[in-house]
Design brief:
Length: about 120
């Protein structure tokens, strides 16, 4: 069975880039955050494999980055190497596969991401 890319949303904030891989009820989740890229893989309950490898727009601090799994998605909190520098896109290359999301409030905090939480209202830009 061929692998698919997981639907990916991202939020740009002064200190962090937040990435959300939208795969419900994921299993075998693997997240590798390096200084210049992230590698994500998992399976859904139907056995479909998801795989994303993204080369970041700019360098990140992988040692101060983390991820959290909920029932609906896997959210990665990626610390920027240079704070307060806006990223015009997530990837080094200018590709249109990812959706940047803007919200009226801040992106979810690590403590807010549990299986029972409601998702925040978001609009794609």
């Amino acid at each position: 069975m061929a692998r698919q890319h997981a639907r990916t949303l991202w939020y740009d904030r002064p200190k962090y880039v937040f990435m959300e891989f939208c795969v419900e009820d994921s299993t075998d989740v693997h997240v590798l955050i390096e200084d210049h890229r992230i590698v994500f893989s998992c399976k859904n309950p139907d056995g479909v494999e998801f795989y994303n490898e993204i080369e970041f727009y700019a360098k990140v601090n992988c040692k101060d980055s983390q991820d959290k799994r909920s029932g609906r998605s896997i959210t990665c909190f990626v610390r920027k190497w240079k704070e307060k520098v806006a990223w015009p896109r997530l990837t080094k290359e200018d590709i249109k596969l990812l959706k940047k999301v803007s919200t009226k409030g801040p992106p979810p905090a690590m403590d807010d991401l549990d299986d029972d939480s409601d998702s925040a209202d978001a609009t794609s830009t």
